[in-house]
Every structure is written in structure tokens, then in C-alpha cells.
Amino acid sequence: MSIIHEEPNNPRPDRLYHVRVQVVEGNFRHASSSAPVSREELMMVLSRLEGVRLRGLYFTETQRLSLSGVGLEEASATGSGRRAHHVEMCACPPGYTGDSCQGCSPGYYRDSKGAYTGRCVPCNCNGHSNRCQDGSGICINCQHNTAGEHCERCKEGHYGNAIHGHCSVCPCPHSNSFATGCVVTGENVRCSCKPGYTGTQCERCAPGYFGNPQKLGGSCRPCSCNNNGQLGSCHPLTGDCIDQEPKDGSPGEECDDCDSCVMTLLNDLATMGDELHLVKSQLQGLSASTGTLEQMKHLETQTKDLRNQLLNYRSAISNHGLKMDGLEKELSNLNREFEALQEKVQINSRKAQTLHNNVDRTTQSTKELDTKIKNVIRNVHILLKQISGTDGEGNNVPSGDFSRELAEAERMMTELRSRNFGKHLREAEAEKRDAQLLLNRIRSWLENHQVENSALVKNIRDSLNEYEAKLSDLRTALQEATAQAKQATGLNRENEKTLESIKRQVKEMNSLQSDFTKYLSTADSSLLQTNTLLQLMGKSQEEYEKLAATLNEARRELSDKVRELSQSASKASLVVEAETHAQSLQKLAKQLEEIKRNASGDELVRCAVDAATAYENILNAIRAAEDAADKATSASESALQTVIKEDLPRKAKTLSSDSDKLLKEAKLTQKKLRQEISPALNNLQQTLKVMTVQKGLIDTNITAIRDDLRGIQRDDISDMISRAKSMVRNANDITDEVLDGLNPIETDVARIKDTYGSTQREDFNKALTDADNSVKKLTNKLPDILSKIESINQQLLPLGNISDNVDRIRELIQQARDAANKVAVPMRFNGKSGVEVRLPDDLDDLKGYTSLSLFLQRPESKENGGTENMFVMYLGNKDASRDYIGMAVVDGKLTCVYNLGEQESELQVDQSLTESETQEAVMDRVKFQRIYQFASLNYTKKATSSKPETPQFHDMENGNSNTLLNLDPENVVFYVGGYPSDFRLPARLRFPPYKGCIELDDLNENVLSLYNFKKTFNLNTTEVEPCRRRKEESDKNYFEGTGYARVPTQPNAPFPTFGQTIQTTVDRGLLFFAENQDRFISLNIEDGNLLVLYKLNSEPPKEKGVTHTVNNGKDHSIQIKIGKAQKLMWINVNSKKIRIEGEIFDFGTYYLGGIPISIRERFNISTPAFRGCMKNLKKTTGVVRLNDTVGVTKKCSEDWKLVRSASFSRDGQLSFTNLDLAFPNHFQASFGFQTFQPSGLLLSHQTEANNLQVTLEDGHIELNTRDGSSPIFKSPQTYMDGLLHYVSVINDDSGLRLLIDDQPLKNNHRLRHLSNSQQTLRLGGSHFEGCISNVFIQRLSERPAVLDLASKSTKRGVSLGGCSLNKPPFLMLLRGSTRFDKAHTFSINQPLQDTPAASPRSMEVWREAQSCRPPPRAQASHGALRFGDRPTSHLLFTIPQELLEPRSLFAVDVRTASSRGLVFYTGTKSSYMALYLSKGRLIFALGAEGKKLRLKSKEKCNDGKWHTVVFGQDGEKGHLVVDGLRAQEGSLPGNSTFGLRAPVYLGSPPSWKPKSLPPNSFVGCLRNFQLNLKPLNTIAASVAVSPCLSGSVEKGIYFSQEGGHIILANSVLLGPEFKLVFSIRPRSLTGILMHVGSQSGKHLCVYMEAGKVTASVDSEAGGILTSVTPKQSLCDGRWHSVTVTVKQHILHLELDTENSYTAGRLPFPPASTQEPLHIGGIPAHLKTLKLPVWKSFFGCLKNIQVNHIPVPVTEAMDVQGSVSLNGCPDH
């Protein structure tokens, strides 16, 4: 969390500015949202304060800055300053301490999982410590002889119960503890002794040690007796050396021979052998009766039945427990309803009482009124008497008073008559009736519910009694089952002892049987060896005959080429003219570039570009012209290179040299065969004579060819020159068109500069208006230009040899779109206008996750005209009934709608859209985020004002079964503000176009602008001015990971300095790059750390790094300082430094964040572009302004740190632990993945009670849980095509279902017990290789959101941020390769492992393989395969049913120097399709129903370069396209058609070929095999196919990283005396080198483990091994010799000059036996052997000798996986 304090007034230049800030919450706001800071948030920051930063730069041209008097006051009881007032002193609750209760008391630790900074919870140290670590709770300084994270166990050398008791010292012996642990049972003590001690209580010294452990303070020490490197023997108490033979010679000599020791050891072993024979004879007398075996089987059956009963009891108890929980919940609900009912009764009772009181008061008032009326009547009588002349007593009254009183009486009577009391009476009666009805209704309701509740309580009480009775029955049954289990356990122990004795007897019998089998196999192998030698001789004869035929063919081809090239032509002048014209065009392009630079360098024009960015298109047009000129130049150069590419003299020399080598090999073979088998030699002598004669003929022919070649001149270039001229004319046309378009633009620029060059800032509005006129002209052309460039790009994509032009065009497209996206200006819509925005290419990413941010404003009511309902935006398909996202203003409030295919979800914001002036618009920010079917809306009112309101969050959920936003790339549209008249909106968005201002912010973390549009609707920038809004200035630049920034600098500065501050979350990225000719400096991020790759001289590139993590999303300052005079360069990152010595070259331009494609290819830079934020950019001359950029924007979005994707290497995995709790009954896990691999683990989700896995098995997606061994779901389709696929696992009330790309698989299975604990998530593993993105796990405490892969995760072999999915070759899918083995099966109940199953010992000692760094000249042909090592070399493919279409179009890349051979074949003899080489040209052949079609390439393709070939058929038509330019087309005669059938061959199939096709495979390399634009990876067989190696090769065998091995059956004699010699040059430091034997009881293995070479011999009785750890790493690129010798029971290993010995009784019989030899690895069926390493060797191996005889590896018939027998790369 970061908070900031901002002063109302900024500092002024060259003025001293004083600031004093009181640290209270009212003075701070959040740095990200500018929201007020609460007291709790301020306390959180202060409690974990990491840094205080002061802003220093307030102006763009700051030259100096000083800072002084910085201080931070604090108050403490021991301070010496002035008295501090208003200091809080809190009364802390238990467990907290400190003035503000910010710390935890002793015995407590802070748990960071709670709110704010966490809460203090008690330490769990079992009473042995009162200190533990914050966050983890791990105990510190365990007391009382305990250890462990929670002091839960006794420390080494102690025993006891640390949890419930205490730990005591192990009596091993007495109080001297020489044990690592012990077990004490009563008086019996068993100790685990330390090295050097032995005995049950470690009471004596082990052999080779002396001392008295039982003595107080005594111990055992090693003997100091030199016994030739072995542990010597000495007296166990005194240490005196014994049993040492006297040395020969002087005392200064050391013993080099240990024959005496060996003889003594052999005698002892012989004695032990006699004793073992005696034990064996005794054991053979034992036997096991059938009754015992039957009893054991019966007990085993009873045990299984008992186990099933126990499981049933547990299940029943669990079900009853769930029902009890449900009853308890229902009872609690009834109690709550009773309480609520009682409250209502009380309320109604009070109302009835109030009504009763009102009725009483009304009655009382009525009585009072009656009394008053009676009084009035009495007064009337008195008055009548007075009227008669007397008063009440009979006295006469005066007449004056009488008249007055009479008038008063009449008035009173009138008033009485006018009053009406009927209304009051009716109201009183109505109230009385209502009160009586209410009282009756309440009484009736209470009586009914009392009866119902009484019955319900009785039922519940009866149910509880019934369940209690059942529980007691279950408890009794469990007790009985426990007793039976104990009884069964006792019986099992007794039976185990009997079983062990039986196993020992069976083992002895098997051993005897194996001995007899070995003797028989030895006799068989001897016979097989004789037959093998005879077969080899026959094969040699056949190969010599084939070589003779090949040489004759080569002679004929050379003669043909001489005849073809004998015609000379003098057309070199035309080539010179083309080159000269191309150079002139290049000069013109440079002049155009200078015009562009002058125009863009003007400050005023840059302002206009920032306002509307219209003139960025000038750069695009100029570079398009430059690109056209480059095309012309490259075309002319290509024509010249093509003329001289046929280097026939060199080929003739090569053939001569090859023939000489063949003669030498023939002579050597002849000599060998004469020595071994003389009868067969006589038969071969005649063949050798024929070869000698043919060799003479070949020499004569070669001499004649050399004479003919001297007169050869360049010919056959007319076609090339004509094409060059055509391209030059096209370039001229394009240049003229661009110049015509630039003239009015240049005029406008000059006019703007002349008119407004001296005006003030306030007059700039008029300049903007003029700029808008030019914008209107350019914006009308911009969509057409981009569409044309994209169209050209799509047409040029298949061209393999013009990739430079394609890359250049792509760069132009990216620059144009970047220029449009940089226009961060709100667009004003007038109620009639609108735009269609150009969407990014990656629509698949929007399927699972969509994040769209934009700003909205409405004009004030007087401008708006009272419009309340308006359309805002629509993102979706043109068919609005399908998936879409839309927004509209309804009744003045924003409404958001989205549809995933079935139904719409809608949400309306409860705040009205802000109205403001257009000149200074105040805009609301809307951020829509969707993760699968869940969505949220973040609405910030007045976001662009100085005081934005607090953001409001709204959650939405689409209730249908779809989870993906499926957008059709061909029909998707993004309308903003308005829409075309022919488009019909969805009903909820069908409103008039928008009136007001809209600004797009970003889409899925990528900046997007309305000015990057495809088309506009009724939009006129001259009539409608753009809106203006307040924007905060920032010096941050966001690098999207797709481009770079080019920065000019002073080239000859004495001390160049460069600096920047970076923030990133990616593992790899290029930060800084400078180059000059063939030298360069590249500062990169590799695995999260800084690495410098540099080349300062003619030596290969070097590298230096520093271990300092920079990809944690925090600021990291990087400074680069160069001292040319000192020949030094320093790179500082925070406090770490890298120092590089050497001659530093000059450079006038450097790159930040990436480099152009041309430079990347020139220096072979593979590090991807940087993704993250950069700020504080500086160079030698001052602050850096980024003006020349691609893929860089001027701001960093709030979501740029979010990491949604990861690339997994083959052993990579990503783990998340302690995720929030899952929903009890609802669960969802969703993710997207891409891979070319058939098998691996995609996702594993685990809680304490459940485990769920999504895996790939042979391309099918499977879902497994712990409940069953078979998968719950298995997809019918395969998903290893490299495309992005989405998977969702959903468990809800309707059951469990699996969605793959929104296609559901359902059944009645349900996941249970999901809410027991926190969740653990793991991505990748088990050899998965590919990408995983947009991961979502439904969690209880958080709103639905995409999972940040960089947060709280641990990774291995994973690169975060982006997807680098390499398209694999089909070599990785060969049968027998370890990469294509049967996919691993996953056991839900066992922990996951990334390695094949092996013995427990091998799992303990296995370590991660360490790979050597790739050589400077890495292989360029990664993924290619070599064919032609044998005549029938081929790959067999099976075509999936979904790819069998009437139209079949194949594509493959070919590289060859051969002139003849079959490349591709499918079909039968009568109906076929083929591609083959003839005289260097590619020929496509199609045959059907006796009709044939042949299409031939115009140019020869056997130049040793890669060519992309596309061929196929559409009905009766055939197509052949080479490198995208040379296309051929034809039709089968007679309307014949060809239908594609499986199988399909690359190379030459063994049979079924028509005679018109070449019989043998071509010699060369293939890659990227496709059918109908989809890669083919369904390989069924592979014969003699190996990796394609680039560059020169040397003698040896190459094992690639994908794994492979060679098997030579029965070729090694393994016996008591054995010697194995070979040489290695590894590329990985772990792997199997050699393995002899195939039986578990006898084998020898040589392997590397983490750089250490080990030789081991294993047998049933045990094994011995010896190893050598080299002083220098084996990754030095040199050959290393390995020698393994077995002699006189001694195993000897020698690595170069380092030796190692181990003596022991080796398990070999006296007679040697024939064993198979495995080179580079072992088959899968041998991985059950006890080997600590099973990884295949990666590197080169040669010169294999067994018992001084070379092993003929090239004749191996069984080659599995990726192995090349034809040589090893020389680097």
C-alpha cells in the first residue's frame, strides 16, 4: 500500500521551498486511487514502513536539484527533544503490546491472514518456547531438548514425547549420547548410532575407529593407519595399527600394490561363502504346506471383508452425521421462527391494547358529552323560566337582560343544531369492530401455530431418539469391529513371519533357475554371433554394389550439369544496371527519411502529433518506400547470387575425396574379413576388383569434368533479371505515389510552422483546427492503407526466402497502429457519428478474460437537448444474437449488458452520468472486467477531476451454462459511439447514437485509442472539436513486450552514462542494447536477475550476471557507466554492481526494451522484449524523451502488473498454497492452455478431503478425483494442436460437468467436502510443456477475479508473462522416444511426481539435471529431421479422420544438396501423390485411374538452403508452389480425381511405389510438415531418421535433448575381467551413458549425476559403485575419456586423468556371458532397475570399445528416439 501527501502549491524554479507534514490520516491520500486514507490504513503503512520517497522533479527541463534538512520525528519515552503532545497510549488486549498495540506479546505471533496487518495468536510450541516467527508461527529456540517447527519432537540424541511429556538423553551408552535417536521399551534400548559407533547402545567403536565410548568423556576417533587409501584396521581401544604387511623399499615410499590385502580379503570372503552355503542347505529343508497357504488366503479374505465393513460403517456414520447436522440446522431455524413469531405476537398485542385504550377513551368522551347535554337542557329550562319573567326562584328579571340572554340562547341552539355527532359515533363503532376482529385473528393464529409446533417438536424429539438409538448400535458395532481388527492384526503378524520364510525359499529356487538359464543363453549367443558375422558380410557386399550405382548416377548428373551450363551468355551488364538503379532508389529512400526526420523534429509539429497523431502516417509511407527500394536491391543481389551458386568444382573434389575414403574403407574391411572368415573373403575379392575398376573410371570422368568446368560462364539469368526489372519498376511507381501524397502534407507542415512558429500557447487552438483538416484527409486513407498492408502481409506470409520483407511490413503495421493508439484524446460524438475500432489480433485471449476501460462524459443539459437514452459501445459478432458485450445510457444512467450465447445479463449503475462542459470535460471512468461467466463493473464518478469520487463495484453473473466469449475473427466488430445504419443492435442496446465525449483507455492491459479505427460513421473533425480533459503528467513509459524505443546519444562522449528505473513482473526481457558492426552490449533480465551479454572483440560473446531479483514489481534503479579511457563499464542495480573490462566501442544510438527484428537476427538475440514500466530515463546529455518507439505508451495502466499467462518447460510447475476457502457446494476451476505435447498434468486442485486433476493423456483431456481410479470424464477429441483451448470444471446443484471450449461433458458425479480446509493449486507437471493462462478458482472470501500467477506462488521451470510456445518437430513424437512414451498414469492417493516411477532409493538420490549453457554458435535447424541415411529412410503418418477432405494441401520445408530422391508419398501403385527430386528440381506427381500429372519447379532447390514447398490437389487439379513465388498448376486428363488415403510417408516407403518414382529416399532435411494448415504429429513409425545438424559435423553419435538411446543386442561379453572405453562431450550434466545387461541380478551402468561420473555394478546380493567428481565442469565443450575396468573383483573408473577404485565381490560367473549394450539411455521396461538416474544422455559420444574391440555403433538396428549416427556438431 502506498499513500502520498500533495502540497496545494508546487515549488517554483530557483526558490527555496520548505515542507513540513504532520503524519495524520487527513494529510494523505492513496497513490493509486487518490481516495482518502483511513486511520486503520495509515497505521498499517506505519507498522510496515518500507520507505519514504520525496518528489524532486517538478519540471521537464530540470538541470540541478538539491535536498537538505530531511528528518522524521518520532516520540519515545527516552527521547531528548521537546515534549511531545497528543501521543496515544493504548490499553492493549491480551496478546498485544506497544503504545498503539502494534506488537505481539511474548508467546504470541502475528498471523498475516487476517484483516489489516493480521492478528496476534498464541504460539503453538507445546510449552517448550515462548517465541515464534511472525507469519509462519515456527517456534524459535525450543527448550527442554526438543526440536521441530512447533517443538513437537525430541532433538537428535534424545527420546520421549515432546507434546505430552518431556525428552531425555538417549542412554547410548549411559549419559554419553553417541546416537542420532533411540527407542526405549521398558528396559530395552535400541540406539541409532552416529558414524564410528556400533552396538545396541553404541557402547563400542566401529571397525576403523578406536576409543572407549563407555568412559566419561570418551569417544571414537578414526584410525590413523594408511592402508593404500582404504580405511585401515587398528586396536579398538588403543588405536594401534594391526594386520599391516611390511612395506617394501625405503620408509619414504608409499604402498602402490595391495595384493596381500586383497588375498586376505578373498580368504575371508571364501569363509563367508562356505557359511552361506551351509545356511542355504539348511533353508532348503524347509517347506510350506498347502494348509498354511490356504489359511493365509482365508485370513486375507477375512481382512478384506472386515475392511469393507469398516468402510461401510464409516460411510453410514458420515451420512447420519450429515443428517444430524441438517436436523440441528432445521431446529435452529424453528427456534428463530418461534422467536420471530413471539416478537410479532407482542407487537400485535401492544397494538390491540392501544386500540382498547382508544375505545375506552372514546366511551368516556361520549359519557362526558351526554353529561354536558343534560346540563345544557337544564340550563334551557332555567332560561325558559327566565323568559316567562321570573328566575329560577320565582323572582322577576329585568327586560334588558332578557333580550340579551335570549339572543345568546338562540345562538347556542343554532350552534347545537348545526353539530353532527353521527360521524364520531360511526368512527368509534368501526374502530371497536376492527379491534375485535384483530383480537380474534391473533387468538386463532396463535392456537393454530401452537398445535403445529407441538406436533413438529414431537416429531423432532422422536427422530432424535431414533438417531440416538442408531448411534448407540453403530458404536457397539464399531467396538466389535475394532476387536476383530485387533485379532486379525495378530494373525497377520504370525502369517507374515511364515510368508517371509516361504519367500526366501522361493528366491533361492529362482536363483538356481537363473543360473541354468544363463548357461543356456551363453550357448545361444555364441551361435548368434557366428550368424551375425555372416549377415554383416552379406550386407557389406550389398552396400558396395549400391555405392557403385550411386557413383555412376553422380557421374551422369555432373555430365548433365556440364551440358546445361556450357552455354554462356554475357548478361552481367544488366545485373550491374539493376544494382546501380537499386542503389539510386536507396539514396532516394534515405532522402525521404531525412525529410521525415526534419518534419518530426519540430516541436510544434510534435504537439500536433500528440493532439491527433495524424502525421505518424508520414513515417509509414516513407518506410514503405524505403522497403520497396530494399526489395529492388535484394532482388538484384539475389539474381547475382543465384548465378554463381552452382559451385561444381568443390562438389567434384568432394566426390573424389569420398571415392578415396570408400576405397580405404573397402581395403580395411577386406583385411578384417580375411582375418576372421577366409571362405567369405574369396567371394568378395571379385567385388573389390570391380570397385577398383569403377574407381579408375570415376577418376577419369572427374578429370574430364574439371576440364569442362574451366570454361563455364554464368547463364540462365534472363528470367531473374526480368523479375528484378519488374520489381524496380514497381518500386518506382510506389515511390512516385508516395511522393505525390507527401507533397500536400509537406505543404501543410510548412504552413503550420510559418504561421504559428512564433505564436503564444493560447493561439495554438487555431493551429489544431488546421491540423484537424489534415487529420481528416489522412484518417480517410489510413484504414485503406492498413488494410492493404495487412493484405500484402497475408499474401507474403508463406514465403520462406523473403522473410526480411515480411518482418519489415509487420514492423510498419505495428508502427502505424502504435501511432494511432497513442492518441489519448477523447473523441466527441454529435449523436449521429460513430467509429469501428480495430481490435487486437489475439481474440482467443478475450474468450476467457475481458478487461475494458473507458471514460464517458455527457454535455450539459442545455447542450445535450435532454437526451437520456444513448448507445455507448458494442463488442461482438455482426450477428447480434450471438456473443457480445455492450453498454448504453438508459434514463441517464450507464447500463452494461453481456451475452455468452444463451441469455443476457444486465446491470445498471445507480449514479447518473456526469454532465460537464466540452472544453474542460469531467469524465466518469468505467472498467468492465469479465472472467468466464462472472463479470464486475467498477464505476468512478468524476474520475478526471481533481477530487474523484469513491469507486463503486458491481458484480454480475451470467446464469447460463456457457463460460466463453466466442468472437468470430471474420465477423467481429467493435462499434463505439454509433453504428452503421444496416446493423441491428440487440434489444437492450437499441438506442440512438451517443452524444458526448468518449475515450478508450485499455483492453486486456493493452492501450487502445478510438483513433485506431477501421472506419467512421458521419464523423467530421472540422465540425466537431475534440474534447479536452484534465490529465496528470507522468514520466512513466509502458513497454508492452512487443517493441522497443530507439534513443540517439552523443557518440564520442568521454564518460557515457545511462540510467532508468524499471518495474516488471516478467522473468525474461531485454532492457538495454547498443551495437556497432559485429560488437554489442545487451543488458537482459534472465530468470528474474540481471545478465549482461557482450561482445567487445573478435572472441565469442561473454556474459556476466548478478543475483538480485528485479521482477518483483518494485522500483529498481539501473545505472550504466562507461569509462573508455579506463576500458571499463560498470552496471549498478540498487546496491549490486557488475564490472566489465574491455575496449568499449562508440555508438550513436541505443535501444531500450527491445530491438528491431533485423538486429535481433544479426546477433542471434533470443531474449524477448521487455514488458513493464520505465521511468527516470537519463543519458549523458540529460533527460531522455522517447520519440521513436514501437509498442511503447506514455502511461502504465493499473493492471499492467497482473500476470495471467505462463510458459512451462518440460519439467516446469507452478504451485499455490493456502488459497481461500472454497464454496461448500459450488466449485469452479477454469483455465486456458496451449501445447503440442500429447501428455502431462494441466491442473491439480487439492483440499484435505478431496483432490481433483485435469490431465492430458495422448491428447485427450481427462478429469480424475480421489474417489475412483478411472477418469470421470475423457474428451473424445484431442487438444495438442498448439491452439488456445479453455477448460472449466464446475460442480453445483446440477452435478459435476467438464466444459472444453464450452462443449459440456456431464454425469451424476458430485464433488464433496470442499469446505474443510484451504485450497492448494498446482499448474503443470509430469512433462507438460506449453502455456497456461487465465486461471480462475472460485473462492469464498473474494469476488470472482482472474488468478495473478506472480502472487503467492512458487515456480520451477516456468516463465511468467507471455506464451513462448515453440512449434515442435515431428521428431519429438517418434515411436520409442521418451517424449512419446505412454503417458504417465496419475494416482490420486499418492503425491504427484514429475518423474517416472522408480525405487524409493532412486527417488531419494535423484537430483535435478543441470544443463550446460548453449554454445555461442547454437544450432539453427532446431526441429528439423534428416532423411537418407538408408535408402528406405522414412516417417509413417496416420491421418486423423477430421483431416480427410476432398481438398488436400500439404506444406513442408526442404533443405538438400541431393539431386534425386523421394520426399513425399501416399497412395497405391495405381492411385498416388508424390513429391520427389530429379536433377535438383522438385517434381509433384499425381496419378489416378491410369492418368498422370507432373508439375516441375522452375528453379533447382538442391542449393543447401531451406525452401518452403506447398503441394496438393483439389479434385482433378494439382498445385505446386515453391517459396511462395514460383507456382505451378495443372489438371489430370479425363476428369480423373484423386482421394487422399492414409498412410502418408515422408521419405521413401519400403514398398508400394510406382516404378516411375525414385526408389530411394532423398538425402536432406525436412521440417514443419502440415496438412491444410494444421501440423501433422500422428507418427506411427520411424526408420533411419535423425536430427538435422547445421554447420559442420565431426565423427560421433549425437543424442538430442528430446531423449533417445541405441540398443546393440548380445554384443558385449560381460565377465570377471571387463573393460569399457568411450569419450563424451555432454550438454547436460545428468544422464545415462552406458548400460550393460537387461536382468535385475546382473548389470553394469555408467552414468552422470549433477556432473559426477559414476560406475555401478548391481546384483541380487547387493551392489558396489565408484565415482569421480571432476575438478572442472564437463561443460567445457571438450571431449572427455571414460574408462571402466573390472578385474580381480575390483571396479576401477577413470575420467581423463582422475581415478577411483572400489573393491568387492562382483556377482559375475567365471564364464563370460553375452549381454545387450544400451548407449545413451535405457528402455522403459528397464526403469524398474535400482538406478538413481534414468534421464537420457544429452550430448555427443564416440570411440566406444569393449575389451579393446571397437563397437560398430553405425550398424545398430534398434535406434530409439532422437539420435543421429551420422556425426556430431563441432560446437
Q: Report the structural category.
A: alpha+beta
Beta-strand share of residues:
25-35%
Task: Detail the poorly predicted runs.
Answer: 246-257, 566-572, 599-619, 709-717, 755-764, 792-803, 1369-1409
What's the β-strand tally? Answer: 88
- Largest pleated sheet: 13 strands, antiparallel
What is the CA-CA span between the terminal residues? Answer: 51 Å
Describe the structure.
The chain has 1771 residues and is of the alpha+beta class. The protein is built from 17 helices and 88 strands. Strands 34, 35, 36, 37, 38, 39, 40, 41, 42, 43, 44, 45 and 46 form a 13-stranded antiparallel sheet that branches. Strands 75, 76, 77, 78, 79, 80, 81, 82, 83, 84, 85, 86 and 87 form a 13-stranded antiparallel sheet that branches. β17 and β18 form a beta hairpin. The longest helix has 144 residues. It is globular, with a radius of gyration of 46 Å. About 6% of the residues have low confidence.
Keyphrases for this structure?
1771 residues, alpha+beta, 13-stranded antiparallel β-sheet, 17 helices, 29% strand
Question: Could you give a short description of this structure?
Answer:
The chain is an alpha+beta fold. Helices cover 30% and strands 29% of the residues.
